Each structure stands twice: as C-alpha cells, then as structure tokens.
Amino acid sequence: MWSRALTAVGMAVLLLTGCATTPSPTTGAQPVRVVAGAYPFAFLAGTVGGDRVSVETLARPGAEPHDLELTARQVIHLAKADLVITLPGFQPAVDQGIVAAAPRAVLDLSGATGVTVGSHAEHSPSEGHADENSHEEGAADPAHDPHFWLDPSSMAAASDAVAAALTTADPEGAATYAANRDRLDARLSELRTEYRAGLAHCGSRDLVTSHAAYAHLASFTGLEPHPLALDPEADPSAATLATIATLVRDHGVRTIYTEPLSSPKAAQVIARETGVRTASLDPIEGLLDPATDYLTIMSANLVALRQGQECS
Fold first, then answer.
1. What is the pLDDT of residues 215-226, one digit of tens each?
2. Residue pLDDT, tens place only, 72-120
3. pTM for this structure?
4. How remote is the C-alpha of 287 from its chain's centroid?
5. Domain ranges of the chain
6. In terms of C-beta density within 10 A (0-12 exposed, 13-18 middle, 19 or more buried), how is residue 93 classed?
7. Which CATH code for domain 2-15+29-116+141-192?
8. CATH, domain 202-308, list 1.25.40.10, 1.10.3720.10, 3.40.50.1980, 3.20.20.10
9. Reading across the β-sheet that carries 106-108, which strands appear in turn?
10. d(CA 88, CA 67)
11. What single DSSP character describes residue 89?
C-alpha cells in the first residue's frame, strides 16, 4: 500500500513541478475550493460554506477512509485547493499528500477537537500479544479516538474552526459562514441533548461494538465501550473474543453492534454463542446512501442505540 501511495505522490510532484503556477487569491466570484480527507470534514465544509464553497472528499463513498490511497490527480487537487481539512494520523496517505502538495491552507482539526491520533489507535490487539486491559483503556480514551464527530459538542468545535478557516480564505463570506455555523451548532446542541436524554435510562450501559470508534459517544452518554478490535479491518484476538463473550453473559448485554463498512463476522460469532442480537451502528466514516447525511445518520444511530440498549 505504501509503495503505491508514494508512487502516486511522486507522479503528482512531477506534474506539479512541470506546470506550477502561482494561485490567485480567492474572491467572491468563484467558490472556495475545499478538499476534505473524509466525509465528516466534507459535511462541515459544505454545511458551513454553503454555496460559497466547492467540496471534494478524498475518500470514496462506501470505502474505509483509513485505507485511502491517493491518486496523482488527488494530490494535484490538494495543491490547487484553497483549504484542506484533515485530522493528522487518521489518514496517513492524506498526511503524505499534504507534504508533497503544499496546499495554500490546511486546517488541522486536532487543535479544535483535542484529538491526537496515535499508533495504538491503528492496531488491533490480534497483532502480537497486546494486553487486554490496554486494549480496553485505549478504546475508552476520546483523546486518541479520531471519531470526534460522534460527540456533537466536538463536532461543534470543529464547525467553529471550519468557519474561521473559510473566513480567512474568503473574508467576503464571513457573515455567511458565521450564520451557517450558528445554525449547525444549534442543531448539534439539540442533538447532544437528545442523546443524553434518550440514553439516560437503559437496561444496559455496556456498548459492545465491532471496532473502537465510539469513545467520544460513550464519554458524553455514560456508556461503557467494549470493542472487538481497534482496527475495523483486523480480526479480534481469541483472548478478546473470550473476554467479550464473558462480559456479554455476565453483564446481560442485549446487543452487539456491527458497522456498514466493516465485516460483521466476529460480532455474529459472539452473538450466536451468547444468544444476543446484532444491530447496525454507523461510525459515519463515509456515506453509503447519498440521501442521508451526518445529522440523519446520528438520529438513526440514536434510535438503534435506544432499541439495542433497551432504553425507556
């Protein structure tokens, strides 16, 4: 994977060297060109930017954003962008592309969200003999879970950062960006209230998921995350499977959650063994249905959680 990514970056650098021009300042006559590494960042740019921006998402719909490999064309688009929105460490190929392309402006969302993606967030305990307690602790730590958007308050902080970055790129649009940000932040505040109220009284507080994407959601709702793996593409270790199966039995867990973009096999094995059901919970890393968006999926996730956790 790395060799292909480096080849694409190298080709793009050659093309950029051969046809480099000095970019003109952004004006109200043309949209601000925004390139986003993953769907949640693109949602922010499109919602806050409105008609004043054009947004390209590097990760394909229906594909895991972690596994993104950039094409030479995408690296060129990074170079031509007025603003690139990213979370360093979440998509290593994007990090490489930004270094090669040197875009005009890069918004690093780690500052606004307080998230630092470390190596332990990228590997499953099935690789080697990882300690099971460390696996649980890492899964529960929002500071190292890139999925900040599953807490609406962190999404609002990112919204504010996007509005500020767009205003810098396009000062004439400042009032538009501020108004759109305020509307989004208000809806996010409502959504957070809905989650806290909807999950306040549940039959189970244990949140068993196929991979470690829910530390932020668990933190603000009071749920306890128990992922089968840290990496969505990794198979959980035998020790993790045994630990989770025991927890499901001992704690009266009702539901094990799978994800739209990942294999449900491990979750289904434990569900059959323990006699519980499975349900889909979307970490909103990418869209499968263009008729949906971040807000509608978050609302659907709340419905799934209320049913799965047997909340009143």
1. 999 999 999 999
2. 999 999 999 999 999 999 999 999 999 999 999 999 999 999 999 964 3
3. 0.87
4. 11
5. 2-15+29-116+141-192, 202-308
6. buried
7. 3.40.50.1980
8. 3.40.50.1980
9. 53-57, 32-36, 83-86, 106-108
10. 14
11. T
